[in-house]
Design brief:
By secondary structure, this protein is an all-beta fold. It has a single domain, classed as Immunoglobulin-like (Sandwich). Helices cover 0% and strands 34% of the residues. It has a six-stranded antiparallel sheet with strand order 1-9-6-5-3-2, with no helix packed on it. The chain has a five-stranded antiparallel sheet with strand order 4-11-10-7-8, with no helix packed on it. The two termini are 19 Å apart.
Protein backbone atom coordinates (compact mmCIF):
# COMPACT_ATOMS: atom_id res chain seq x y z
CA UNK A 1 0.00 0.00 0.00
CA UNK A 2 1.22 3.43 -0.91
CA UNK A 3 -0.48 6.41 0.82
CA UNK A 4 -2.10 8.87 -1.51
CA UNK A 5 -2.55 12.57 -0.95
CA UNK A 6 -6.16 13.10 0.14
CA UNK A 7 -8.43 14.47 -2.52
CA UNK A 8 -11.94 15.84 -2.63
CA UNK A 9 -14.40 12.98 -2.88
CA UNK A 10 -15.64 12.30 -6.35
CA UNK A 11 -19.03 14.00 -6.68
CA UNK A 12 -21.77 12.82 -9.01
CA UNK A 13 -20.60 15.45 -11.52
CA UNK A 14 -17.60 13.25 -12.22
CA UNK A 15 -19.88 10.54 -13.50
CA UNK A 16 -20.23 10.71 -17.29
CA UNK A 17 -23.26 12.77 -18.34
CA UNK A 18 -24.79 9.82 -20.14
CA UNK A 19 -25.18 7.97 -16.83
CA UNK A 20 -28.71 7.73 -15.54
CA UNK A 21 -30.02 9.35 -12.35
CA UNK A 22 -29.76 6.01 -10.57
CA UNK A 23 -26.06 5.87 -11.33
CA UNK A 24 -25.60 9.20 -9.58
CA UNK A 25 -26.01 7.27 -6.32
CA UNK A 26 -24.07 4.13 -7.16
CA UNK A 27 -21.96 4.57 -10.28
CA UNK A 28 -20.47 1.49 -11.87
CA UNK A 29 -18.73 1.82 -15.20
CA UNK A 30 -15.80 0.69 -17.28
CA UNK A 31 -14.01 2.82 -19.81
CA UNK A 32 -10.95 2.18 -21.99
CA UNK A 33 -8.41 4.93 -21.64
CA UNK A 34 -4.88 5.82 -22.61
CA UNK A 35 -3.03 6.52 -19.40
CA UNK A 36 0.59 7.29 -18.56
CA UNK A 37 1.32 5.24 -15.46
CA UNK A 38 4.68 6.92 -15.11
CA UNK A 39 4.82 10.66 -14.67
CA UNK A 40 8.59 10.96 -14.64
CA UNK A 41 9.22 11.19 -18.36
CA UNK A 42 9.33 7.46 -19.04
CA UNK A 43 7.21 6.12 -21.87
CA UNK A 44 3.47 5.86 -21.13
CA UNK A 45 1.23 2.84 -21.74
CA UNK A 46 -2.23 2.10 -22.97
CA UNK A 47 -4.49 1.06 -20.12
CA UNK A 48 -8.06 0.20 -19.34
CA UNK A 49 -9.80 1.85 -16.43
CA UNK A 50 -12.57 0.60 -14.17
CA UNK A 51 -14.43 2.97 -11.85
CA UNK A 52 -16.97 2.20 -9.15
CA UNK A 53 -18.51 4.57 -6.65
CA UNK A 54 -21.38 4.53 -4.22
CA UNK A 55 -23.17 5.89 -1.18
CA UNK A 56 -23.34 3.35 1.63
CA UNK A 57 -26.78 2.00 2.55
CA UNK A 58 -27.78 -1.08 4.56
CA UNK A 59 -28.73 -4.28 2.70
CA UNK A 60 -32.42 -4.45 1.80
CA UNK A 61 -34.76 -7.31 0.85
CA UNK A 62 -35.07 -5.85 -2.64
CA UNK A 63 -32.33 -5.11 -5.16
CA UNK A 64 -28.96 -4.69 -3.52
CA UNK A 65 -27.08 -1.41 -3.87
CA UNK A 66 -23.46 -1.54 -5.03
CA UNK A 67 -22.22 0.03 -1.75
CA UNK A 68 -23.42 -1.67 1.43
CA UNK A 69 -22.74 -0.99 5.11
CA UNK A 70 -23.11 -3.78 7.65
CA UNK A 71 -22.15 -1.60 10.64
CA UNK A 72 -23.81 1.81 10.52
CA UNK A 73 -21.88 3.04 13.57
CA UNK A 74 -18.44 2.58 11.98
CA UNK A 75 -19.54 3.11 8.35
CA UNK A 76 -22.53 5.46 8.56
CA UNK A 77 -25.35 5.49 6.06
CA UNK A 78 -24.53 8.22 3.53
CA UNK A 79 -20.75 7.73 3.72
CA UNK A 80 -19.15 7.55 0.27
CA UNK A 81 -16.60 5.39 -1.48
CA UNK A 82 -14.92 5.40 -4.90
CA UNK A 83 -12.50 2.89 -6.40
CA UNK A 84 -10.49 3.22 -9.61
CA UNK A 85 -8.51 0.40 -11.20
CA UNK A 86 -6.08 0.94 -14.05
CA UNK A 87 -4.63 -2.06 -15.84
CA UNK A 88 -2.20 -2.33 -18.71
CA UNK A 89 1.30 -3.15 -19.77
CA UNK A 90 3.86 -1.17 -17.81
CA UNK A 91 6.25 0.48 -20.20
CA UNK A 92 9.98 0.15 -19.82
CA UNK A 93 11.38 2.88 -17.65
CA UNK A 94 14.73 4.55 -17.39
CA UNK A 95 18.01 2.76 -16.74
CA UNK A 96 17.94 0.80 -13.48
CA UNK A 97 14.14 0.71 -13.30
CA UNK A 98 11.90 -2.34 -13.66
CA UNK A 99 11.45 -3.83 -17.11
CA UNK A 100 8.17 -3.72 -19.00
CA UNK A 101 5.36 -5.97 -17.79
CA UNK A 102 1.84 -6.19 -16.44
CA UNK A 103 0.64 -3.37 -14.22
CA UNK A 104 -2.38 -3.04 -11.93
CA UNK A 105 -3.06 0.14 -9.96
CA UNK A 106 -6.01 0.25 -7.54
CA UNK A 107 -6.96 3.49 -5.77
CA UNK A 108 -9.60 4.07 -3.11
CA UNK A 109 -11.25 7.22 -1.73
CA UNK A 110 -13.72 7.45 1.16
CA UNK A 111 -15.56 10.21 2.99
CA UNK A 112 -18.10 10.37 5.78
CA UNK A 113 -16.50 7.65 7.93
CA UNK A 114 -15.45 8.18 11.54
CA UNK A 115 -12.64 10.78 11.69
CA UNK A 116 -9.11 9.94 12.77
CA UNK A 117 -9.61 6.18 12.67
CA UNK A 118 -7.74 3.37 10.90
CA UNK A 119 -9.68 0.94 8.73
CA UNK A 120 -8.53 -2.13 6.83
CA UNK A 121 -9.54 -2.62 3.19
CA UNK A 122 -8.90 -5.39 0.67
CA UNK A 123 -10.01 -6.65 -2.71
CA UNK A 124 -12.27 -9.72 -2.31
CA UNK A 125 -13.27 -12.45 -4.74
CA UNK A 126 -17.09 -12.12 -4.81
CA UNK A 127 -19.61 -9.28 -5.18
CA UNK A 128 -21.13 -7.73 -2.05
CA UNK A 129 -24.13 -9.56 -0.62
CA UNK A 130 -26.70 -9.22 2.12
CA UNK A 131 -24.22 -10.65 4.61
CA UNK A 132 -20.54 -9.64 4.89
CA UNK A 133 -19.31 -13.20 4.27
CA UNK A 134 -20.81 -13.29 0.77
CA UNK A 135 -17.88 -11.23 -0.57
CA UNK A 136 -15.66 -14.29 -0.18
CA UNK A 137 -11.96 -14.31 0.78
CA UNK A 138 -9.22 -11.89 -0.22
CA UNK A 139 -8.11 -12.04 -3.82
CA UNK A 140 -4.64 -13.64 -4.01
CA UNK A 141 -2.35 -13.58 -7.03
CA UNK A 142 -0.91 -16.90 -5.87
CA UNK A 143 -3.59 -18.82 -3.99
CA UNK A 144 -2.83 -20.25 -0.58
CA UNK A 145 -3.81 -23.96 -0.63
CA UNK A 146 -4.88 -23.56 3.01
CA UNK A 147 -8.02 -21.47 3.52
CA UNK A 148 -8.74 -19.20 5.27
CA UNK A 149 -5.30 -17.87 4.47
CA UNK A 150 -3.27 -16.51 7.40
CA UNK A 151 0.19 -17.53 6.16
CA UNK A 152 2.29 -14.39 5.54
CA UNK A 153 3.85 -16.14 2.55
CA UNK A 154 0.48 -15.71 0.83
CA UNK A 155 -1.42 -13.17 2.94
CA UNK A 156 0.73 -10.12 2.31
CA UNK A 157 0.44 -6.78 0.54
CA UNK A 158 2.37 -8.01 -2.54
CA UNK A 159 0.21 -11.09 -3.15
CA UNK A 160 -3.09 -9.43 -2.16
CA UNK A 161 -4.49 -5.94 -2.67
CA UNK A 162 -4.42 -4.08 0.66
CA UNK A 163 -5.92 -0.60 0.78
CA UNK A 164 -5.79 0.18 4.52
CA UNK A 165 -6.33 3.84 5.34
CA UNK A 166 -6.57 6.28 8.24
CA UNK A 167 -9.26 8.94 8.03
CA UNK A 168 -8.73 12.62 8.68
CA UNK A 169 -11.29 15.31 9.37
CA UNK A 170 -14.64 14.61 7.79
CA UNK A 171 -13.81 10.92 7.74
CA UNK A 172 -11.92 11.32 4.47
CA UNK A 173 -9.02 9.17 3.31
CA UNK A 174 -7.34 7.76 0.21
CA UNK A 175 -5.03 4.82 -0.44
CA UNK A 176 -3.39 3.04 -3.35
CA UNK A 177 -1.99 -0.41 -4.14
CA UNK A 178 0.23 -1.15 -7.15
CA UNK A 179 1.18 -4.57 -8.50
CA UNK A 180 3.10 -6.11 -11.39
CA UNK A 181 0.36 -8.67 -12.06
CA UNK A 182 -3.27 -8.58 -13.19
CA UNK A 183 -6.45 -9.99 -11.71
CA UNK A 184 -7.70 -13.29 -13.14
CA UNK A 185 -10.92 -12.76 -15.07
CA UNK A 186 -13.98 -12.81 -12.83
CA UNK A 187 -12.07 -13.58 -9.63
CA UNK A 188 -11.86 -10.05 -8.14
CA UNK A 189 -15.31 -8.57 -7.53
CA UNK A 190 -15.38 -6.19 -4.56
CA UNK A 191 -13.57 -4.03 -2.00
CA UNK A 192 -14.38 -4.72 1.66
CA UNK A 193 -13.72 -2.24 4.48
CA UNK A 194 -12.66 -3.86 7.74
CA UNK A 195 -12.69 -2.94 11.42
CA UNK A 196 -8.97 -2.22 11.83
CA UNK A 197 -5.62 -2.29 10.08
CA UNK A 198 -4.37 -5.55 8.53
CA UNK A 199 -2.22 -7.89 10.64
CA UNK A 200 0.98 -9.35 9.22
CA UNK A 201 2.16 -11.94 11.82
CA UNK A 202 2.03 -15.68 11.15
CA UNK A 203 -1.33 -17.15 12.01
CA UNK A 204 -3.13 -13.83 11.67
CA UNK A 205 -1.70 -12.38 8.48
CA UNK A 206 -4.37 -10.67 6.41
CA UNK A 207 -6.81 -10.44 9.33
CA UNK A 208 -8.37 -6.99 9.82
CA UNK A 209 -11.36 -7.63 12.05
CA UNK A 210 -15.04 -7.54 11.20
CA UNK A 211 -16.27 -6.72 7.69
CA UNK A 212 -17.94 -3.33 8.01
CA UNK A 213 -18.88 -2.41 4.46
CA UNK A 214 -18.51 -3.48 0.84
CA UNK A 215 -18.42 -2.00 -2.67
CA UNK A 216 -18.99 -4.22 -5.69
CA UNK A 217 -16.33 -3.55 -8.36
CA UNK A 218 -16.00 -5.41 -11.71
CA UNK A 219 -12.21 -5.48 -11.69
CA UNK A 220 -10.46 -6.18 -15.01
Amino acid sequence: MKPVKPVKFMKPARIPRKASAALAVTALLTSPATTAFAQDGSRGVKAEEVRAAGVFVPPSPGRLAEALTYDVKLVPVGARIAVVERVGERAGGRAGEEAAGAATDVRLWVSGLLPHRMYGAHVHTEPCGRTPEEAGPHYQNVKDPEQPSTDPAYANRENEVWLDFTTGSGGRAASESRHTWRFRAGEARSVVIHEHGTATAAGEAGVAGARLACLTVPFE
